Amino acid sequence: MLLYHDTRAPNPRRVRMFLAEKGLTGEVDFIEVSINDRAHEQPAYLEKNPLALVPVLELGDGRLLRESIAICRYLEELHPEPALFGTDTWSRAQIEQWNRHAELELLFPVAQVFRNSHPFWLGRIRQAPEFAEIMREHLARRFAWLDRELADRPWLAGDTFSVADITALCAIDFGKISQIRVGEDTPHLARWYAEMKARPSYKA
């Protein structure tokens, strides 16, 4: 399998962390597609993903998956242990819920702060700095919400580490480029974040 990725982007990192948690990193060849160098906009890559997004997983027979959670679900089906999407109806529903929360309440607003306020995007896209500030305020409220949620359980979806934790970690770390960080005012979130950083997959 081939994984087309950018080392700095959060969605490819989700897949790399998932691979690491599954012990599958050695089964994939990684091909860098630098967003900074606009490699994702080149014709050869656009044939694989016309949306110019990373990551893309290419199978040995040429089939393509071009969405990070779809890739993770495919890998989970091939390698169900350790289970990162749940083991029964309730745990699968809980993990789905919390992964969606992490995507919509963390990753999306973090990305919008970056896209609408960072100099990297000047001249590349139309920016709306006021919207970036709205999203920054939204994230402060969501960090406080997560802190309350994590007061009585170790992981987002309950007692077991899951793909939802991977998504939340990648979102929060991506926020660093926009000066968004977990602070001392959210101790339960900080505890969770420290435990995430201690996992070997954090360096993926």
Q: How much of the sequence is in beta strands? A: 5-15%
- How many structural domains can be distinguished in the coordinates? 2
Radius of gyration: 17 Å
Unreliably modeled segments: none
Count of individual beta strands: 4
| Order of the strands making up the biggest sheet | 2-1-3-4
Average pLDDT: 97
Helicity level:
40-55%
The CATH C-level name of the largest domain is: Mainly Alpha
**What name is given to the CATH topology of the largest domain?**
Glutathione S-transferase Yfyf (Class Pi), Chain A, domain 2
Give, in order, the helices and strands.
EHEHEEHHHHH
| Class based on secondary structure composition and strand pairing | alpha+beta
CATH architecture of the largest domain: Up-down Bundle
Total number of helices: 7
Describe this structure in words.
By secondary structure, the chain is α+β, with helices and mostly antiparallel strands. The protein folds into two domains: 2-78, 3-Layer(aba) Sandwich (Glutaredoxin); 89-203, Glutathione S-transferase Yfyf (Class Pi), Chain A, domain 2 (Up-down Bundle). It has helices at residues 10-22, 43-46, 68-78, 89-117, 129-149, 163-174, 187-198; strands at 2-5, 29-32, 56-58, 64-65. A four-stranded mixed sheet has the order 2-1-3-4. Helix 1 links the parallel strand 1 (2-5) and strand 2 (29-32). The mean pLDDT is 97.
Defining traits:
globular, alpha+beta, Glutathione S-transferase Yfyf (Class Pi), Chain A, domain 2, 2 domains, 204 residues, 4 strands, Glutaredoxin, 7 helices
